Amino acid sequence: MRILSFLYIFAFIFIYCGCTPKEQQSPPSGYGALPSQQQVEWQQMDMYAFVHFTINTFTNKEWGYGDEDPALFNPAEFNADSIVAAAKSAGLTGLILTCKHHDGFCLWPTKTTTHNISKSKWKDGKGDLVKEFSEACKRGGIRFGVYLSPWDRNNAKYGEPEYLEIYRAQMNELLTQYGPVFEIWHDGANGGDGYYGGSRKTIKIDRSTYYKWTETWGIEKQLQPQAVIMSDIGPDVRWVGTETGFSGDPCWETFTPESDKDSSEPAPGQVQYWKSLNGTRNGRYWIPAETNFSIRPGWFYHTSEDDKVKSSNELLNHYFASIGHGTTMLLNIPPTPKGLVHPTDQASLTGFGKLIKEMYAVNYADGATITASSVRSSTKDYAPENVLDNDPFTYWGTEDTVTTGELTLTLKAPSIFSVFRLRENIKLGQRIDDWAVDIWENNQWKEVGKGSAIGYCRLVRLTQPVTTQKVRVRITKSSASICLSDVALFKEPAPLAEAVGKSQKGMVDKKGWTTDVKLSAAIDNNDQTNVNLSMDEWKKISPQGLVVDMKKTVKIKAFTYLPVRDNGYVDKYNFYISQDGKRWDLQKAGEFSNIKANPISQRVDLEKPVSARYFRFEPLHVITSFNQKEAVGIAELGVIE
Length: 641
What we know:
By secondary structure, this protein is α/β, with parallel strands linked by helices. The protein contains ten helices and 26 strands. The strands form six sheets. It has an eight-stranded parallel β-barrel, surrounded by six helices. Strands 13, 14, 15, 16, 17, 18 and 19 form a seven-stranded antiparallel sheet that branches. It has a five-stranded antiparallel sheet with strand order 23-22-24-21-26, with no helix packed on it. Strand 5 (192-194) and strand 6 form a beta hairpin. Helix 4 packs parallel to helix 9, helix 6 (161-177) packs parallel to helix 7 and helix 8 (312-322) crosses helix 9 (343-359).
């Protein structure tokens, strides 16, 4: 009787509770650092626009010194709605405006400085560009964000305690007068030479203490609690560590910032930024990466880059290398001096939007039948079918002790696809370490992709399309029970036929050019060879700079400098010309702004074309990589006529 009673009780539990003693009904606990609701909502935006537009647009610079006349700013045909429409044509979901760049010129009529748009000719000084953009975003149904450079090369109080109050007052204006903001963007460039209220000088600050970041961010959170805050170290979103438009693989959502050689505490502009590329597995904080890059080589519009606009197909490559690695994608669209998106940029954006729509038009996993090696319980909450509902927060779940497993999808019919997508429910943390995907081919499983990290989104392009009716996803290592929320299959669209050029018009042929034999790699037409000398060696070989004999007189309009990646970036220079190699005329003295973060080919236009047989490039200052000795790096020098 006792045995029968026990069986009746067991049957009652099985029938009425709907589970066996082995099943786990409660949700799994979160693993490691977890995202806030604001971070989750931000991650779902996928990709959005950066708009670099200020006084630099009219001075042809990347970084202004702070001595620019506000009257120069006059975008006669400016139309914020057209810029928002251009962003939307690419499928972008938001827009972040450079409300104040390093030059200190404010695009709104701020009460904190006279160096602002009210002193410009645009709309007779009565305009407010921030308002125009914020309202256009609202009309266009996309979200609005603000960039406010912590550095100010114009303000006389920069470097003093008073400037922090000015900076916070500017942020207060931006966060209280223009509606909801989805992201607040802080640049890591802080301190250096500038105009500073009329005095040309260099001001250095302690980046880890000067801005009192924890307190400053707290103020921003009070004013816009729904916004995420971005900087090199978060606290909500981190810079990916490069401006090339590619994130690391893997790129973990968690991160532990580490200070650089000049500080005991990490801070914006003072962190081992290259570690952001991959993040930190089991990092202390949930600080996912944002991959930012420009549709052009530079961040601001330059006529000389009209033939260097990234094509729609190139933008798709960046999409896979950013969103496909679990980051968001921040694409810069710089308006022209007229205040419009250049037609070439617009064509690339429109084409990119079409490629994305075409790729996602059909999910070949829709309607598949699916089986799992293990399920947390028989309730729908953890069913394997949840990976097919296109909801990033419903998921297939396993029991707490089960950290490996597999799903098998049988498609409705044999299908051709070339892209697969995996997602985790990030509300429960980043749990999965390693994964693999197989297809059924010739009566056996064939592995077509594997990797580490999934996070919010993992996109993988196959080298060529495959045809199959069965797909298997294997989780080969996980630090906690599996919570996989999405398996999707797509076909990458055929590349668009585009006519976006990549040439440097007017580049002078270097054939016959001569220089010191130890420096000849700088003019050999091969960017894979380079001059990379310690500063001591450079001073011995070429104390006055690199002298080039072009063997004939050339009418020089501009010169170009290609840096050596990873070390010895020349950021300040003098450029001279000569007819006889003895008497030299200084033609240009300046800086290559932002070259460390964006080490692309630099073009410098002279004030007017000059005729010369010789030119001399003199490095005045270099930026070196972490823990490397000071060095001069030159991959290529050239001139344009």
